Amino acid sequence: MEILENLLKELNFHELHDHELSFFVGSGISVNSGMPLVSELINTILKTVMDSKKHVDKISNQKIPFEVFMNIFGEYSKELLDIYSGGIPNTNHKLIAKLAREGHVCSIYTTNFDELIELALNNEGLSENIDYKVYRTEKEIENSFKDSELLKIYKIHGCISKINSLRHTIRNVAFRENILIREKILKKMLNETSKLIIMGYSFSDFYDINPIFEQNQNIKKEIIVVNHDLRNDVKIDKSVTKPMLNNNCWDITINTDDFVKVLWKIHLKDKYILDNINHDWKNNIKNWFEKIHFGYKEYISTILFIQQGQIELGNYYCNKGMSKADSEFLKLELYLLKLLIIRSLKKIEKSDRYIKKAKKCIELLNNQDIAAYGSVNIAEFYLLVENYPKFEEEYHNLNVIMDSITNNIIISKYHRLGIQYCIIKGQYAEVLTLCDRLLDFQLKNGLIIDIPVTMHLKFKAYLELNDIVGAQNSLFELKNIPGLTNLTYQPFIELSEIEYMVKCKKINISEINHEIEKIWFKNENFQNNFVFDVFDKHADYLLKKYNKD
């Protein structure tokens, strides 16, 4: 390990002064405590819900971000997340806690849900709110800048001890919402202190953390990224594969246990002991799935395959789930998914059967929120397949019940349907007014994910009114939505730009198809994200509209 010791000395990690070191850690540091790696947990769940390894591989190869995956489970995610509620700190947590006890650590940033770092600090005689402060929720993180200079622990994706807030944060990460909070705190991490160690982290948070690193390159601080490798040799390189390229960032490929041992030997007098604790979390997952509703495994598999654009496999699991489901609400969910599949497979003639089944479930459930949820989705289906008489009928039915609905997501969808209703009627001035009201509602309620579609409807209304200046301004707003990773929506934004260029006669109508194909191939991974349907719909609209003209 002499080569590693020499590098630490060269990078000034051999001597540590007070509060000059920060840690950014991921799930890898908790493996020796019996906690799963993210990829391992996802794979175990997939094996539990799917029929074959071939099907499991089709999803696991897509590398779905953990929060996107867990968000599918909704209210049931608590039972799965419970595996993070126990455990004993291992050598990695102890190293961080002991360095904190010595006064070297300024802040600890972690994507982990467990509380093993906090427990390790307590075992070193440090007390929460006296020696250190933990920020477990988005609101607490947002208010953290006002606090005194205690050792700070930032639970960037939430904490198991605040399960409702954790599930809310998971949803926000999955839908690219409230990114500004994480951007602010990670900028702080990259600029505070002079030394940062990143350990046990896979750089797989493509929706919120990676884009922030990419936007904050050329950081002057010294950064060490520990890449775990079970082999005994050590490989040291300038960072060329991570999103935060800078001259002072070093990748160290090494068994993490060996890295921790060297750091421990240099800075601590305590005896080094390697901990390795077993925890049968896989069995917990299997037992939970055995207790859940029949058809739920198939429901999860259906969503996963639809999200990845593998419609035939989605259809297979949806049919299987519908034949097994023992809950009226689960049946409703599966019937609504079946409508998405029918539309994708262009078998619209089969839709009446499943709409009737969905409405029967709504009637049996006798709940206004569920009625609104089902009707909004059915109305949206009619809109997407351009069955405007049925869409208008369903929309008017919604008007009767919406006054009593408090779910902001349903309210947002309902108002967007109202805007579409005005577009069908050619009432574009009214569209602008309704878009502004809806944008205000979405911003106030943190529904960032809904904003691009509303903004595009506003942009389209300006074009229909031949207001080029208004269209240009709304296109600028679309590119600069606060709290949104525009990287995700880049193809959607580029599509709007094509429409603008056609309207301004900057490109010929004959070039539209070619320009759309260029966007598609430039964003080759785009087909696998949830904006696909919106992009596809507007691409079709563009081609039909201008080819007709």
UniProtKB/TrEMBL annotation:
Pfam family, one: SIR2_2
Gene3D superfamilies: TPP-binding domain
Protein name in UniProt: NAD-dependent SIR2 family protein deacetylase
